């Protein structure tokens, strides 16, 4: 079906971007998810649209950043719960690369604290995986234009507090109160890495990792590794079966 020409039309085919001569602008996308079948499904859906080209796939956040730096896509579509470097932290590092790529989180988690953290780190969109296929196409196109796109289920709880009043430290959830490094350490602890392995992976000393572990336990009010793992699963840093 051809575009109707109305700027506010919500039909997916009317959200494509055309040049002054009617040429179709292709949106270049990198997809990052640690499940191969999920990546393939997203690729198939996006490439059916006609104006979206998937130029690369990644299985974790670090690989996604490497592809972005090399391929310079318009949009990075990424999951949150990925090994080694989760989606929220990857989005934060994306800004440090100095590229124009915009990030769209595609996640099964509707936790408003997680959504806020992703947006603060620089994500331009947050879409739930249970969204219909047309929503994904609309989200990719919106994010590629620099617009913000949120699933309706998360938009209200996330946007209203930010609009109604300044966010105070006391209002932050436990996830918000963790530093970026603490979230990295937490994810690796939850994935089963030892202090020595975490130190090697993050180029830190074991003593520093142990200090981060102590800070995590104090901030999250837990006294053992099992508690840290439960928190990481609950807040989407790792999948329940990791």
Q: Tags for this entry?
A:
single chain, 242 residues, alpha/beta, Rossmann fold, Arc Repressor Mutant, subunit A, six-stranded parallel β-sheet, 6 strands, 45% helix, disordered N terminus
Largest sheet: 6 strands, parallel
- In DSSP terms (H or I, runs of 4 or more residues), the helix count works out at 10
CATH homologous superfamily classification of the largest domain:
Response regulator
* Spatial strand arrangement across the major sheet: 2-1-3-4-5-6
Beta-strand residue fraction: 5-15%
SSE ordering: EHEHEHEHEHEHHHHH
Instruction: Kindly report the oligomeric state of this protein.
Output: single chain
Which architecture of the largest domain would the CATH scheme give at its second level? Answer: 3-Layer(aba) Sandwich
> What's the β-strand tally?
6
Q: How many angstroms separate the termini?
A: 43 Å
Radius of gyration: 19 Å
CATH class placement of the largest domain:
Alpha Beta
Q: Please indicate the count of domains.
A: 2
Give the overall form.
Answer: globular
